[in-house]
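Give me structure tokens for this 761-residue protein.
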Amino acid sequence: MIRIRILILSAIPVFVFSLPVFGFFDDIRLSSYAQKQQIHEIIAMLQPKLDKGDTLNPLQIYLLAASYTSTRDYRKALMTIDIMQKQIDRGERTYLGSDFTVYPQILRGGIYLGQGDFLKSIAEGDLAYRLLHENGREKQNFYTSQLIEIYDFLGVAHALAGHQTEAQKIAGALQKVSITVMNGPPKYSALARIYMALKEYDKALTAIRNPSARVTGFITAFYDQTFQEIPKLYILSKSLYETSNLPEARQGYDQLLRHPQIGQIGGIYWIVLCDRAKIALSEGQKSMAEDLLKKAVQVIEQQRSSINTEAGRIGFVGDKQDAYAQLIDLLLSDKRYPEAFAYVERSKARALVDLLSSQKNIPVRGENVQRLKMNLNQMAEAESELAAVSSAANRESQNKTRSVLLTLKKELGEKAPETAALVTVQAPSTTDIQKLIGSDETLLEYYSTGRNWYVFVLSPSSVAVYKLTTDDLAKDVHDFRKMITLNASESYKARAEALYRQLFAFVEPSIKTRKLIIVPHGALHYLPFCALAQGGNYLIDRYSIRTLPSASVLSFLKARTGQPRTGRSLILGNPKLDDPKYDLQFAQAEALAVGAILPNSKVLLRSEATKTNFMAESSQFSIIHLAVHGTFDPDKPLDSSLLLSGDKVSDGLLTSADLYRLSLHADLVVLSACETALGKVASGDDVIGFTRGFLYAGAGSLISSLWQVDDQATHDLMVDFYSNRKTMPKDESLRQAQIKVKQKYPHPFYWAAFLLTGNAL
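Here you go.
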């Protein structure tokens, strides 16, 4: 069982040691359970009383909340914490001389820290510290214990939030806290966690090796001597590894991997596997490293958003994508290109699951929707049960639950693959993806492991990989975009040719088609590939280009090809935003011009171009065209929005998050707005922005922009695009429209911003 104090920070306070002397019989038994980490016994003893409507005393309600937190049943933990808070608000804040005022904040702070919501954790910590120093609480018996617990999660939260100075101050204050034999272990464990979060591993190592960090003497009688050491041994081993003490780190990691319960702590387990694999590689044990990395990926993919909870509390939130990157580097070194490509796609699938893990009410697509919704609910319950740390008696039950979960995932993947891709890692094989590439197309998928950049070149019959030579590709892309958007400058030309040499020149001889599918990675999502140049000739002069967020999306797009369409078009333009500076004169003219070209069009302008109308009617149209303003929020990408007119029902902001609740039947969505192709690029690289949202909502393809576009040039380009569509596929229609605008406005600022994502037909 997990030792609550070490793993979740806000744990069983020291005062429970006094209860066998001063408490009642039930509380004596509870304190014994708590110190021996018999958490399920605490829940079994207290929850039935709560269910019957009995009132639990402050200690009991605290122990119940802490136990649920320890088992990672956060829903029940927060409900129990709310009950505790209400008791405190009624004045029931002390029990047997101990003041419980700060424990709701301590418990919530630990939960928020584990969930990665560092600012919420900091807010709870600040409030707990303030409450602890009010009304003379600093004179109560357990002030020091509570102060250590607050400093513990508050210091880690500040460090992980990037507040280095604040975290250092807290570590300094914690160093000065006077301790007793009871407070030594939590103090130095807390210091080690804060220094780990600050990546000051030498100091973490010093703290965890401090003699006062050890549980010694009569105190050991109250603890599970085996399992209490897992978090401490992890901190020690990780610190040894990061300070290049590899033999000692190897011994510690091997000891952790042998522990029968390490598998229940997924957030630590995969990091241990990954670091142990790196040690194996450094010792020339390549086969062992591969096995460990594949196991790490398996652990990562078995869990959803709970994966970071334990490691976050300990002070180290690992980058799950590092496990994929290490494995991909290893496979590529052996020239196992198809297998490496499959793991690239799995890494993108994992990133999407992470980024959407907080989304609620995602619509289900497929037959028998009610059955699939029930499937999702059952999956959520099973994942919650498996995320909880189980007792030995519950192990058989968890094995059955794991089997049920695998069955549910398989059914969801078969019946609703697009929905499955948002909640589980679903990636087709490399061979399956190759079958979806047209004979007249070549797929280029770029990927960075953090150490190396690669490009995979796929045709229906071959897979090749090239290693890129680049020093700082992200900076090069940033500089190129900056030069383009300064549309009076010609400085972009040298950068366009340099990026062509870095990204394309060495693969071009192997490309035998005039159609390209490009799957970017990292900063390349923001790169206008069509504007890369060789001797003044742009890629757009030679190739039709479409992009994809991942190659796996091809399987969903293929399924949509040939679906019945209404043949109708919905066009929204120049919404009324109650501020003249937001008026888009050419957008209104564009909307009217597009409406004249497309048959069966419905054009909504000004006050009619509302979010309410869009949400109500968008599912009825084959083409949707939005000539509106768009904004991109890099910190909260799901809050990025298209600015439509407000009304009595809505403020008019159509957010990226809204799209995951839509059900469209559109073959094409055109976003003739500013920066609509942008999204948050996560470490796993699945871009959450309008592109992924509209594709999931049901769109077959999307045209969007990479920067704030010129109104007149956009109008001309869009009119030409729709005119071309009468005789050309979408990729060639866009290419020809861009070439025509380029003839009038040679600078790429005017024509290179727009890109096609999705189907080309």
